Structure to design on (406 residues):
């Protein structure tokens, strides 16, 4: 059995209101071709299909167009999709009964009884088991009792997650025992969470509603699992030095933090329960560049920016010692045409002398902040030190998560 593991598409994401529809279309076309070229038996999407819980109709159309194409040209490939923390579980689940009949399994809301998926081979027999676990937020993993400390709440969440994975993997083990030759059927599970020790970016650190699950160890996954397909972190990587526990990463850069990353999807081919793993590089569908220096250095680096068939996004970080109040205009004047006409340019001024003279923090636009970011600012500025700020923060995240799930 051959599986393609991907995640964190974030369909509908914009960059400073700059639409990225063309990039998403190119990626989805490429993804479909990879499924065909690799003759994949299963495409596994480990969460964050959409960037927002209420994606625009045009964004949803892009998603359903892809599902239609993979159903008709995917050479019998079964598609398994789970919700991430950016997705609305209810929105993904709505057409589930229809999609199930088309070899497309979608799991939005966590439910152990629905998460085990059997993938049939050409013989018609079960040849792969998938524990399709979506994003698990604190609200479904634990109960809150009066007097619970923050440490107690975090441990309850971790225990709840461990139990959830054990329960669904126990069901998989029962299927193995009831199937002739079942001991050779591989078990793959998904997860949309932050596993301790993994590499992340500043953007993900500030992402909303990961609850206390940034402190979960890889040992929460039962030993009978043969591959763990993770989503949530945008950096492609293996976890805990284990080849079989992996984040596929996002397919396109979602922030300037990801400018230098090589993007890829993971191809897993099983011989019995032994996986062979390779990374398939994703071509660049946009040009994402970070430039820093004084004005002369910025101008020189701009000269090396090449023409690109697609959008070009540039973050310019002015670090010169000279105080230049009109730095934005100066940088735009020396920017090449490819940047001015076909993309986006964000200019930052990291000159500490400038910041000191202005006596102000760098501007943060409200549209760039999540609801949790706003609440964090509120807590930071709250002068009442007797308030249990950390506990309030986590409770607020649970509320936001519950709203998104519904």
């Amino acid at each position: 059995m051959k599986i393609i593991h991907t995640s964190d598409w974030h369909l509908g994401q914009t960059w400073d209101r700059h639409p990225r529809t063309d990039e998403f279309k190119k990626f989805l076309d490429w993804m479909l071709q990879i499924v065909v070229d690799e003759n994949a038996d299963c495409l596994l999407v480990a969460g964050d299909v959409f960037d927002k819980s209420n994606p625009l109709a045009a964004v949803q159309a892009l998603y359903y167009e892809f599902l239609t194409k993979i159903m008709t040209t995917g050479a019998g490939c079964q598609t398994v999709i789970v919700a991430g923390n950016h997705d609305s579980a209810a929105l993904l689940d709505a057409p589930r009964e229809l999609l199930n009949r088309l070899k497309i399994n979608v799991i939005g809301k966590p439910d152990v009884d629905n998460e085990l998926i059997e993938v049939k081979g050409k013989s018609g027999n079960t040849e792969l088991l998938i524990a399709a676990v979506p994003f698990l937020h604190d609200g479904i993993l634990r109960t809150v009792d009066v007097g619970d400390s923050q440490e107690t709440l975090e441990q309850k969440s971790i225990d709840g997650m461990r139990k959830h994975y054990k329960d669904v993997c126990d069901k998989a083990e029962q299927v193995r025992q009831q199937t002739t030759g079942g001991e050779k059927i591989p078990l793959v599970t998904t997860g949309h969470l932050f596993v301790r020790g993994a590499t992340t970016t500043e953007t993900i650190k500030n992402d909303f509603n990961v609850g206390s699950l940034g402190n979960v160890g890889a040992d929460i996954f039962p030993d009978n699992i043969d591959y763990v397909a993770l989503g949530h972190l945008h950096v492609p990587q293996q976890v805990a030095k284990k080849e079989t526990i992996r984040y596929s990463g996002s397919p396109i850069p979602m922030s300037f933090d990801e400018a230098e990353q090589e993007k890829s999807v993971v191809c897993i081919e099983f011989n019995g329960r032994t996986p062979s793993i390779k990374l398939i590089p994703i071509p660049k569908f946009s040009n994402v560049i970070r430039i820093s220096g004084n004005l002369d250095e910025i101008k020189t680096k701009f000269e090396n920016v090449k023409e690109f068939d697609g959008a070009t996004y540039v973050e310019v970080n002015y670090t010169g010692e000279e105080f230049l109040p009109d730095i934005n205009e100066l940088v735009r004047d020396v920017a090449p045409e490819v940047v001015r006409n076909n993309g986006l340019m964000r200019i930052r001024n990291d000159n500490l002398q400038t910041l000191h003279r202005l006596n102000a923090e760098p501007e943060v636009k409200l549209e760039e902040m999540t609801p949790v970011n706003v609440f964090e600012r509120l807590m930071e500025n709250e002068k009442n030190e007797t308030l249990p700020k950390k506990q309030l923060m986590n409770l607020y995240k649970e509320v936001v998560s519950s709203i998104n799930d519904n």
